[in-house]
Amino acid sequence: MEYRQLGHSGLRVPVLSLGTGTFGGTNAFFKTWGETDVKEASRLIDISLDNGLNFFDTANVYSGGDAERILGAALEGRRDKAIIATKSTFTTGPDVNDSGSSRFHILREVESSLKKLKTDYLDLYIMHGFDSRTPLHETLSTLDQLVKSGKVRYIGASNFTGWQLMKSLSVSEKLGLEKYVIHQAYYSLIGRDFEWDLMPVGQDQQIGTMVWSPLGWGRLTGKIRRGQPLPEGRIKSGGAAGGPEIDNELLYNVVDVLTEISKETNKTVSQIALNWLLQRPTVSNIVIGARNEDQLRENLGAVDWKLSVEQIERLEKVSAQTPRYPYWVGAR
Ligand SMILES: NC(=O)c1ccc[n+]([C@@H]2O[C@H](COP(=O)([O-])OP(=O)(O)OC[C@H]3O[C@@H](n4cnc5c(N)ncnc54)[C@H](OP(=O)(O)O)[C@@H]3O)[C@@H](O)[C@H]2O)c1
After folding, report:
1. Best mutation site among 63, 234, 235 for ligand 1 pocket (most ligand atoms within 8 Å of CB)
2. Which Pfam families does the UniProt entry name for this protein (predicted)?
3. Superfamily of domain 3-319
4. 129-167 per-position pLDDT tens digit
């Protein structure tokens, strides 16, 4: 397994981490994602560790907290072998302070995550989204205090825009506080918006990218093709867990090229889609999803080989997106 620096931190992480969005399924939103229980999670973790993948991504809101509980139980007795990332910001309850990145909410959620994960430290703590109501110095000084106390080792952001990330980094620098080392973002061959703003910020500021939903919610696996009925699974189950609307022609054309390259390389469509991401600037890590053991084993096969320059060019040509203003100015 290839290891990379986690952004500009000293921590080295495997290029793949295992996402836990599929763990639990104890509420309607997450049920369509997966229903992995402790026994199955332990098995997925065994396979991951055997293959050099010791990095696990979760969040306080996945399955209403059950994903953290399942991950904690499945890692019991081997916590020291794992690198755990968890998150807060999104809504955890009915009260007005049950969401956001205030000192009140972050400190309460860190304690709750530590308990659910059965650990006394979190390797990476991520703000799940940008909270425009809370002053940045309040969020960042709280995270800084958590790092100083040893409860958190590194901090990251997720789903920020370029300016939100840049402003957060500037405030940390100005106040001498811990800085975000990574940004966790959606990026795939059918969703390349990340490249316009977030990638240049990452390159300029040495912020590593952790890619989420790298297979576009499971669309870039070869099981969704032009003229064929939708197979059972995440996309067919629809709802919010199916992801945003996408241009079907773009998907079919991308899958056609992935299939051509699959024949040339003897790798699967999913492995090629993941390998392409590994060659992109700023990517420190890809958070893979796997509903079962077979999917995990297949996705683990995306590393330790490289697409050729010509294959990458073909994928970039077929997946190219029209720039939005102001990115097209001067780009012609
Ligand atoms: N920061 C954030 O806001 C955020 C948001 C979303 C996710 N995440 C993280 O990213 C992780 C991965 O996200 P994701 O699950 O959406 O990733 P994804 O790779 O885009 O989709 C994974 C889904 O695709 C299908 N799949 C995966 N590998 C396959 C294979 N080899 N062959 C066939 N089907 C395959 C499975 O669904 P089916 O079998 O049902 O088709 C699986 O659940 C999550 O677990 C979570 O940790 C973070």
Report:
1. 234
2. Aldo_ket_red
3. NADP-dependent oxidoreductase domain (3.20.20.100)
4. 999 999 999 999 999 999 999 999 999 999 999 999 999
